[in-house]
Amino acid sequence: MWFFRSPQVVFGDEALSYLSSLPIRRAAIITDRYLLGTELPERVRGALPEGAESLVVGDVSAEPPLSEMTAHLEKVRGFSPDWFVAVGGGSSIDTAKILFALHERPDLTVYDITPLVQLGLRTKSRLIAVPTTSGTGSECTWAAVLSEENEKRKHELASPEILPDYAILDPSLVVSLPPEQTRNTAADAIAHAVEAYGSTWHNPFSDAMAEKALELISENIEGVIRDPWGLGPRGQVHIGASMAGLSFSNSQIGLVHALGHSLGATFKLPHGKAVGLLLPYVVDFNYDACPERYDRLNMLIPPKYRGRRLSGSLRSLLGMMGVARTVRDAGVEEPAYASSMDALVTLALESTGMVTNPKDSGSEDLRNIFIKAFDGD
Amino acid sequence: MAGARTARVRPRLSPFMIGVRSDALVKMARFPSEEWTKLYAEKLNANKSYEDAGKNWEGAITFVVQKDSALDKDAFIYLDLYHGKCRDAKFSLTESDLPTPEYKYAGPYGNWRKLINKEIDPIQGLLTGKFKLQGSMMKIMRFTKAAKEMVNTTASVQTES
């Protein structure tokens, strides 16, 4: 027995206008500091049903730390929303998921957000995710990531009950995404599709999502990089990223994310940058555990980037996107990397991504991948 | 070629296996039982993957085998786990005879049999309600790999069918 879980997905031109058809009376709009200075929060506010009141919580940090939640939560509780509307990338959406859960159940802590605890949410409110990046897939997943500043750790929280009720994929909301975020988030989405497909928990539903996601992203990302304002390719990559989110949400992540969370938390690298650079190394490591599956994925990469093996094809595709090829390229200095190696390995070993990776691995395997990824093969 | 020559060499036998058919040495035990518990602890202590994944773990866990149509009494397997090793293992049909564990992993006997036969993934078993876990989720979420190795080790114990 297993499940396929998904929000209702509203996609395409003017998808944002769907908000006006929902029975929203009091909306808590959760967004980040960068977007607060743009027109997007106002566009969302303007799309709410007539007469709906709104509160903007607009100071979500990138890779939000646990310590931030208390202040956000006080604002939200004072407003008593009946809907949470997350507007932004993974940080805003993940924060909204956590605030939604803690607003519903004030007796819980973030650590109670696990799939093994029945939370009993949705007695007071609902959750909508409006992504403004194409990559984290958070709008379609039941996971949330929180940073722990003191421990240089990322907490992987998960519960089917924090899956958004609606995901609204409006391509006009992503055309202004800066180039670096475009490439990092797309790399994250590609990693989601590849990890979901290789996962030991893969299933026909997650496979279908992963295959189509990789096809849509790899065929359109070059067009997005060439013409960021082109709605066509942007829309396809946006849909592909959400499908990649659905794929891993229903089959789980693997070693790329285990290593990537560790690397990102330790050296403050953006998540997409960390997983993008690690992906080909992990695919090389995993290859003999699932050669047919990786070969099948390889055939979905456009011929101009396709090599003999998936790892080579990914290197070509990610290289065209401008994703760092090595940890050194990503700006990490060798002495700091070497002195952090034990901590990097320990953090990665504690990730849930270790459980469903296609190839079983231990500390030495993780260390070897980290070492290879520093300067490349 | 050195590789080809090596491939023809007979596998080296352990001192305990010389002259004895390897299958004659296999110990089997009924599940759940005291014998099975001891064999499981031996297998767990020999499992390098568990040792690696559980090297920072401190805490005891009890496997609760709940009665069903094929088992007429609940059974309890207590494991004292510390830094990748099992320091103590106890079996009882009475839970109060055992020390209080930090965690309990519980499921009906029929589901345990499926787990031992690798027909159920231990984590998916939890997520689909075939097993229940009691204890601090915050701590155990950092040790999912160790938990998986623990449950996988059940499959390596030769269990009477």
Please describe the structure with a list of short key phrases separated by commas or semicolons.
heterodimer; A: 377 residues; alpha/beta; Rossmann fold; Dehydroquinate synthase-like, alpha domain; 2 domains; six-stranded parallel β-sheet; two-stranded antiparallel ribbon; 15 helices; 8 strands; globular; B: 161 residues; alpha+beta; Nonspecific Lipid-transfer Protein, Chain A; five-stranded mixed β-sheet; 5 strands; disordered N terminus
**What is the gyration radius of chain B calculated from CA atoms?**
18 Å
Predict the CATH topology of chain B.
Answer: Nonspecific Lipid-transfer Protein, Chain A
The helix content of chain B, as a percent range, equals 25-40%
The CATH C-level name of chain B is Alpha Beta
Q: What structural class results from the helix and strand content of chain B?
A: alpha+beta
User: Structural class, from helix and strand content of chain A?
Assistant: alpha/beta
How many strand segments of chain A? 8
Question: What's the helix count of chain A?
Answer: 15
Biggest chain contact? A-B, 20 and 21 residues
Could you name the CATH class of the largest domain in chain A? Mainly Alpha
Overall pLDDT score of chain A: 95
Element-level helix/strand string of chain A:
EEHHEHEHEEEEHHHHHHHHHHH
Q: Would you identify the regions of chain B where 5 or more consecutive residues have pLDDT less than 50?
A: 1-24
Oligomeric state of the chains present here? heterodimer
Summed up, the domain count of chain B is 1
Let me know the largest β-sheet of chain A: 6 strands, parallel
Please identify, by name, the CATH architecture of chain B. 2-Layer Sandwich
Strand order, main sheet of chain B: write it out.
Answer: 3-2-1-4-5
Distance between the terminal alpha carbons of chain A, to the nearest Å? Answer: 41 Å
Main-sheet strand order of chain A equals 1-8-5-4-2-3
